[in-house]
Amino acid sequence: xxxxxxxxxxxxxxxxxxxxxxxxxxxxxxxxxxxxxxxxxxxxxxxxxxxxxxxxxxxxxxxxxxxxxxxxxxxxxxxxxxxxxxxxxxxxxxxxxxxxxxxxxxxxxxxxxxxxxxxxxxxxxxxxxxxxxxxxxxxxxxxxxxxxxxxxxxxxxxxxxxxxxxxxxxxxxxxxxxxxxxxxxxxxxxxxxxxxxxxxxxxxxxxxxxxxxxxxxxxxxxxxxxxxxxxxxxxxxxxxxxxxxxxxxxxxxxxxxxxxxxxxxxxxxxxxxxxxxxxxxxxxxxxxxxxxxxxxxxxxxxxxxxxxxxxxxxxxxxxxxxxxxxxxxxxxxxxxxxxxxxxxxxxxxxxxxxxxxxxxxxxxxxxxxxxxxxxxxxxxxxxxxxxxxxxxxxxxx
Length: 397
Fold this sequence. Notes:
It is built from 15 helices and twelve strands. The protein is of the alpha/beta class. The strands form two sheets. A ten-stranded mixed beta sheet has the order 7-6-5-4-3-2-1-8-9-10, covered by helices on one side. A two-stranded antiparallel sheet has the order 11-12. β2 (57-61), α2 (71-80) and β3 form a beta-alpha-beta unit. Residues 1-6 and 388-397 have low confidence and may be disordered.
């Protein structure tokens, strides 16, 4: 077995599950803190372990990270250990005082979530006025001297807002814009009608390519999330600026990225479901040991994901390896078959076909949970049937 400690470059760390929003697409179903979240001393030990492993950047998330009293102490320790410290926030309570605390702690950039314009954002965030609070957070952070970026979910509620949203965030001084498709994990599994159907990618990717061109004009760097892809005619244009090879290289979980939960659970990616992908806990094993030895963190390195469905016979399968593990797993309960693939949608279109997902089982209502969906392959000119969610409860833990 080979080791890969030097490959760890990036960690996303949920330091609390407490949140002051009630987002309808929240994968962790954040709100209340976990009952056994790490103490300050335990967090500072984690910082030291990450630095010893050669980690370059740590992003603090929640829930809402600033609702933990020692968030800036943790950020300051990350910077003192020589790592870049960034944060992601919903921005509802990013007051001028908190913005100054971030600056004083050495936070180098903070990403504020903006999911569409006012109506779409507030609907998804579950709090009226959340959009205006997020805008004010951008302004408070900039006034304090913290660089700002924006992250946005792409779904049926946000899609039409994206061009105008880009103009807005550029005017607000954002240096970067991360986008990703909403997938059915956590509360988003309960709002599955918000999600894009696979065949809608045929229209969405040309739109993203136009956004990329406008980003270049505005000086905003577009960061496509790992589930934006794969290998369609816009791959180089969309991903070439952030990927050395100019195209996706498959799932990065445990390859160079790490995810930590507030109770110490260790995963290869913060988005992955807890039960299936936790390799250990910082209270029980050193992070390096979990990183090097556990199958839950080595699957991308060892290429152990079994491809199935359309991914099993795809021309790009040896490079892509099914794309984003998180996306596939929360649709079907196992990775290896990713319906959010531009190349795949184009191949079906050439055959006069399209894919559509339908729900089979509900999510059980726990953090990082998911239901179960199935794919329907049908004529490209089919009409979507009325949507309804089955009442059968999932047995997924």
